[in-house]
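During the reporting period the student researcher (J.K.) took over the structure-prediction task from the postdoctoral fellow and processed the backlog of single-chain submissions. One of the processed entries is reproduced below for the supervisory committee.
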Amino acid sequence: MLNSICRFWFRTNFSSTGVVSPFYGKLCPLQLKLFSSAARPSWSFAKRDSFSANYLMKTWGLSREKAFSAAKHLNIESTEKPDSVIAFLKNHGFTTEQIRNMVRRFPYIIVSDPEKTLFPKIEFFLSLGISDIEVAKIFMAAPGIFKRSLEKHIIPSYSYIKSLFDSNGLNIVSMKKLARILCCDLQHHLLPNVEVLREAGVPDKKVIFLVGYQPRVFMVDEKRFRKTVEELKKMGFSPSVWRFVLALQVRRSMSKSMWEKKVGSVAMRERASLLHVGVRG
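J.K. obtained the following structure tokens:
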């Protein structure tokens, strides 16, 4: 096979008169590249990705699509590194099922450095007086916390949330519920969106309720969040009452089209009710 290709290349690049073909300059580098060692890394990368994907599928039950997608960003050449991560997590109170749950949602955890990346974050939550079991629940609820910087993100976010509760004489309700908001961008999401609610006239206790029980509400950029708040105000929801808080939760939990469909349905029921009352009257 190789000899045939070489003969074809020679005939292509040399005419019968012995003059070099004009295609020589274009084809020669290509031919050389095909047979050079420079082409080998792509094969090794494919082999590595295949190993990573198979490992994720067989060991942790990821779908083929998700496994190969994650494999592009992982560098698993053997099970040695993942095994050390698993052993570390189990030693810190994580069950096999919890680890499986985290890996399925956040595959990158199995190539993390246990001592440099995982331990400092676990240690921080333990220092707050939270038990091993509860710490495991926090990370299972939001394994993406492991990816966040402890000094630049987790500690500042926690300090800000705690100050919100402390200033109103309240205790943090549940760190498990707050886990997702610790993955939220403090400077671009939580801080500005809390201020949007305050500017709109939402009382602090209602803001804290949202932070403590519905942190997902804040996980959007300020522009979109402000637009949602203004939309609810135009619909007649007063920011000072609980109905506004509930409406904000519902609005943030669904797409615009679904929201409009729901609002239209409610409006139709109200009109039908008024017509019914009018007929009876």
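The committee noted the following: The radius of gyration is 29 Å.
J.K. will present the remaining backlog at the next meeting.
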